[in-house]
Amino acid sequence: MRVRWLQEPGRKNPRGDFIQIDTTNILFICGGAFSGLERIINRRMNAASVGFGAQMKQDLGDFEVQGRYFDNAIPNDLVEYGMIPEFVGRFPVIVSTKGLDVSMLIDVLTVPKNSMMKQYKSLLRMNNVQLHVTECGLEEIAKTAFSRGTGARGLRSITENVLMETMYAVPSLPNVHTVYLDAGAVRGENKPILLKGSMTVEKYERLKREGLSKVEGAMPVQKDMQDENGNLEVSHGA
Predict the structure, then answer these.
(1) CA separation for the pair 110, 103 (Å, rounded)
(2) Cβ neighbours of residue 206 under 8 Å, at least 6 residues apart?
(3) Residues 6 or more apart from 33 whose CB is under 8 A from it?
(4) What is the pLDDT of the chain when averaged over all its residues?
(5) CA distance 70 to 64
(6) How far is it, in rounded angstroms, from Cα 37 to Cα 77?
(7) Which of 5, 56, 100, 174 is the most buried (most CB within 10 A)?
(8) Which of 51-60, 178-187, 193-202, 224-233 has the lowest average pLDDT?
């Protein structure tokens, strides 16, 4: 099939030259979030009923429930959603995707070549500082994004809010060699910990397990911090 396509579309050139495109070997894929489509499918599948065969009310805010409904989408649902039948008819195959769960969000944070955690580690490495994020810290970031319903897009804003002060404070503290981030810091219960001197991650975690509240060589990030010479350094927000 051949279609005519405006070579330079735009209001300033409504009568521009057309080119012909052979669509025989072109696969057209249209995708989107389709927010609210699950309610249309729910009305179709779970009509109001009473008795032993009545359908229980479903929580449409649950991502697993939404996924099951999207698996049962039919062209009539898309038409009711607002698409014209001529458009829907040209897409005979309807496929749904599942939302990311917590373990998948953790993979997004760590696995890709240019993942978010690798980016932060690279930025801190410019100041000879290592970033150590615990497994529970990664899980807490993923859980926060999952609970907010923001998916992978929300991972960056959550991580930036947690590490913002740290990124401004670290360059002015030459004796700091590691930033330690755990689940408590992600939840806002405490600040990220800066390790300096002979303090290592293994030693700090061992002292934490022993119940020590204050550990020499480990200090939380603060808005106003002093370097080893006593000079006052003001971080972001001051």
Answers:
(1) 11
(2) none
(3) none
(4) 83
(5) 10
(6) 7
(7) 100
(8) 224-233
